[in-house]
From TrEMBL:
Chain residue ranges for the region called Disordered: 1-24, 114-148
Record's compositionally biased regions (Pro residues): 123-148
Name of the featured protein: 8-oxo-dGTP pyrophosphatase MutT (NUDIX family)
Domain (Nudix hydrolase): residue spans on this chain: 1-114
InterPro entries the UniProt entry points to: NUDIX_hydrolase-like_dom_sf, NUDIX_hydrolase_dom
Organism of derivation: Microlunatus antarcticus
Highest taxon, organism lineage: Bacteria
Pfam family of the protein (one): NUDIX
């Protein structure tokens, strides 16, 4: 991973276009990153929101991280899809990850929260898109009256 070479990490990425917005944009980004980094097609997978965190990078840039849980499709095998971003992949239990010397300090608590969430509730289907707000410039205008 470019951001943390030699460390364990999670699939992740950024919104690529400044114009990306609206319902489902974060879920679409998570699905795109899973395909780009580990070759998983999550189009039909239910994503469960886990948490959001605001932090400042070592370079002093503010970032927001949004995390989702998803069950990997049983009929797909993850692969290193982009060796420039990922050198290897594997599955670890939270305990195995915490014991690995390559594990960054933020990962064990995040995995523990994810495991608690996973045990509490099954994944729900993705939320239905919401209609645009009335003040949204992309929202349709009021309907024209019709003649009786």
């Amino acid at each position: 991973m470019d951001d943390a070479p030699g460390q364990l990490g999670l699939v992740g990425g950024h919104l690529e276009h400044q114009g990306d917005s609206g319902p489902g944009v974060l879920e679409a980004t998570a699905r795109r990153e899973a395909a780009e980094e580990v070759g998983l097609d999550l189009a039909d997978a239910a994503l469960t929101y886990l948490e959001s965190e605001v932090f400042t990078t070592d370079a002093g840039v503010g970032q927001v991280t949004v995390s989702f849980l998803v069950a990997a499709p049983e009929d797909q095998e993850p692969v290193v899809a982009d060796p420039a971003e990922l050198t290897a992949l594997g599955w670890w239990t939270p305990g195995e990850a915490a014991a690995d010397p390559r594990c960054p300090p933020w990962l064990p608590p995040m995995l523990a929260r994810a495991e608690l969430r996973r045990r509490r509730a099954p994944a729900a289907p993705p939320p239905a898109p919401r209609p645009p707000a009335a003040d949204d410039p992309a929202a349709p205008g009021p309907a024209a009256p019709t003649a009786p």
